[in-house]
Amino acid sequence: GLDDAAIRAEREDIIILHLPAFGKQGEYTLGRGYGAHIDSVAGSTVLRGYRDDSPYSNVQVFAGDFFAGMHGAIAALAALRHRRRTGEGQVIEAAQVECSAQMFPQAALDYAWNGRVAGSIGNRSIEGCVPNGVFPTRGDDRWIAISCRTDEEWAALVRFMGSPAWAATPGLETAAGRSAHEGMIEERLAAFTAPGDRDELFHALQGAGITAGPVLNAKEAAEDPHLEVAGAWKELPGTADYPATKFAVPPYHFSKSNVTIRTEPALFGQHNDYVYREVLGLSEEEVASLRAGGHITDTYDAGLIAGG
Questions:
Q1: CA proximity to 132, closest of 211, 199, 76, 188
Q2: Contacts of 257 (CB under 8 A, 6+ apart)
Q3: CATH fold of the domain at 132-215
Q4: What radius of gyration do the chain's Cα atoms show?
Q5: Does domain 4-114 have CATH number 2.30.110.10?
Q6: Would you say 97 and 64 are in contact if contact means Cβ atoms under 8 Å apart?
Q7: What are the extents of the domains in the chain?
Q8: Domain 4-114 matches domain 132-215 at the CATH topology level
Q9: pTM of the model as a whole
Q10: What is the mean pLDDT of each successive set of 10 residues along the chain, which is 308 residues long?
Q11: What is the DSSP pairing of strand 245-248 with strand 233-236?
């Protein structure tokens, strides 16, 4: 079979990256896992979602999926750098569950140092900033995020709201004091923001020195003028499988390197000839044999498409 030894026998300096769900050692080695299971075992599932609620309310977005890919890519780049310097290959193991565990290291440290078991706190701050959350605005499902990271920001928010009597409650001038009344502050702030226009509030709050931002849905994000100017999206041409669409580009921009998306989404099997003939150097006879055996194809199995 194609184990590490067999592959390295063909090329000693090759770099092999393994991304198993639960690693190659331990009780869960043979366990199957998707993003939901990986995040759960890593301990992050109970840290997301609404406060005082069970994990069933979590959104179906599992960061373990793309965290594993990111860590794997960085590990492969480090191995390539090592090979350039030494000529040596590497075999890398990056367990997806360990990658997922990197999302909330503060929770693990809090237990290790203080014996506290963290739970979900919703949109509240783990750093003690009060208020820190998402509040309703006028319209259907329109929200604004507001955070007072300093006592000065809180004072600015109080002035912005017109210095209501409830905000003069003794102790609210400090973060520690506000923490004791966090629920009340959230309730009163939600009542203040609810009648307002989301985007007008966003700009007005920022102008008053208060950290705030609109909560955009996917459509709004794709049409947001700031993200457009920032180059967050690239228009990709349509293919036989995909319509023309905007797609998120890498979030980093280099001054001397083109790191954006350079081609449209690949069709199934589009690069077979390049990989098998140019990269692997297989002959026409070898490629034909692999095609005949069903190992190389550029069409989907009809049974899979039909759900069989």
A1: 211
A2: none
A3: formyl-coa transferase, domain 3 (3.30.1540)
A4: 26
A5: no
A6: yes
A7: 4-114, 132-215, 272-305
A8: no
A9: 0.79
A10: 86 94 88 84 84 75 82 96 96 92 88 92 91 97 97 97 94 95 97 98 98 95 92 86 85 89 84 92 93 89 67
A11: antiparallel
